[in-house]
C-alpha cells in the first residue's frame, strides 16, 4: 500500500519543529496581509519580491538597487513606514506602480515566516486570492506538505488557520493523507467558519486591528477567493519570490 502523504499545519512559524521542513513543500500563509499583497504585486507586474525581516535591512537592500527599478514596501503595526514607497495594502500594488519593478518587502509577521520556511525544499505563498492555484500546485507535488501560518506577533490567527484548513480539506478529498493535530484543528476551524469567510476574518485579531486602522477594504480584498491563478514561489541566490506557476484547471472553492 502506498504511504500516506504527510500534511501538517503549523499554526505559527515558531511551532515548526526543528528540521521538520527539510525535504518538504512549505506553503506560507499570511492572509492579512503579506501573502495577499505578494500575490497582488506579482500579478500587477513586479518581477520579484525580496523578503526582508528588518526595516533597516530592507532599506539597505533597496539602496543597492537601481532607482526606478525598485519599490520599497511594508509595514510595522499595520502602518506604512516613513521613507517607503508603499505600505502593505494589496490594492496599492497596481500595474502602473509595479510593472517590471523589484519589490523589497518587510512586514511584521509574513516576511519573517517566509524566511523561516526557506529551509523547505520548495516554498509557495498562499492567500485566499490564489487558493485553487495553490491547491493544484500542492497536489501535483509529491513532497510532504507543511502549511506554515504566520500568525500575529506570536499569536495564532483565525484567518491564516481558516485558509490552512481550506487547503487541508482539498487535500483530504483528493489524496490519502496523514494529518497532524494542527491540520485537524485548522480543518475544523474552516468547517465552522469557512461559510462566513469575510465575517470570520473581520472578527479575528488581525482583522479587528486593520478595521481600527481604517483598512476594511484590505479585508474585503483578502477574501476575494481565486481572484488570481498565480502561485508565488521562493527562489534562491538571491532569495526572492517570483511567479512560480500560472493557471488553474478549475476552482476548488466549495463554500
Ligand atoms: C504581517 O506580515 O505582519 C502582516 O502582513 C501585517 C499587516 O500588514 O497587516
Query: How many distinct beta strands?
Result: 11
| Backbone CA Rg | 17 Å
Tally of structural domains: 1
Bound molecules: D-malate
| Relevant CATH superfamily | ComB-like
Order of neighbouring strands in the sheet with most strands: 7-2-8-1-9
CATH class: Alpha Beta
N-C termini distance: 33 Å
Helical proportion, percent range? 25-40%
Structural shape: globular
CATH architecture: Alpha-Beta Complex
Low-pLDDT stretches are: none
Main sheet record: 5 strands, parallel
Query: What is the H-and-E element order?
Result: EEHEHEEHEHEHEHEHHHHEE
Textual characterization of the structure:
The chain is α/β, with parallel strands linked by helices and 255 residues long. It has one domain (5-246): ComB-like (putative 2-phosphosulfolactate phosphatase, Alpha-Beta Complex), CATH 3.90.1560.10. Helices cover 36% and strands 22% of the residues. It has helices at 34-43, 55-63, 95-98, 110-117, 131-139, 158-174, 181-193, 197-203, 205-212, 216-222, and strands at residues 5-10, 25-29, 48-51, 70-76, 79-80, 102-106, 122-126, 145-149, 177-179, 230-235, 240-246. Strand 10 and strand 11 (240-246) form a beta hairpin. Helix 5 (131-139) packs across helix 6 (158-174) and helix 6 crosses helix 7 (181-193). The mean pLDDT is 97. Bound molecules: D-malate (MLT). D-malate (MLT) binds next to loops.
What structural keywords apply?
255 residues, alpha/beta, putative 2-phosphosulfolactate phosphatase, globular, binds D-malate
